[in-house]
Structures are given as C-alpha cells and as structure tokens.
Fold:
Amino acid sequence: MRISLLLLGAVLLTFSACERKIVKANLDAVKPDMTSKEVESILGAPTHVETGPELVSSEPKTLLVTRHIYQQGNRKIELRFVGDRLATGSVNGVPAVTGSLGR
Structure:
C-alpha cells in the first residue's frame, strides 16, 4: 500500500511538471498559420474550446472559427483558428491572439 501511494505521488509530480505554462516566451513562439496541434505543442491543451460559424467580412460569407482559451491563474489567452490554422491578422476585427499575461 505504501509503495502504491509513493508511486502515485511520483506520477502526479511528473505530470504536473510537464504542464505547459502561459509565459511570454511560449506565446512569442506561436505564429500565424500554425495548426492547432503545433500551438498545443507549445502551450499545451487549451482549458476550453468553442467552435462556431462567424461572419468574417462584409460579404455574406461565414467560416468555421474555433477559439482556444487558455487560463492559468490570472492569465487568460484566447487564440482564434480559421479551419485548423491560427488566424493571420484579425478575424472580424478581433486579433487572432488576445488576452493578458497578468502578473
């Protein structure tokens, strides 16, 4: 029983050490047109994902936009993907990457 608890503790410590952090260096490594998997390899899995059609221009044209939301403490970052690529520039006037690193 004691060995099982020690092993469980070691596994939990290993997984918590592997968690990606939202820091400026990681955010700077994220570039427009990256796939969601490429972004996840840098930032880790998002806290929350929302997907839906959005009007992307004055023309009656909508695209599927996916928002990946990362939250860690007071840090919240939102990345907007069109298809499976991080948007370049802005989507409907909203920058592809928004949020705050906080303190």
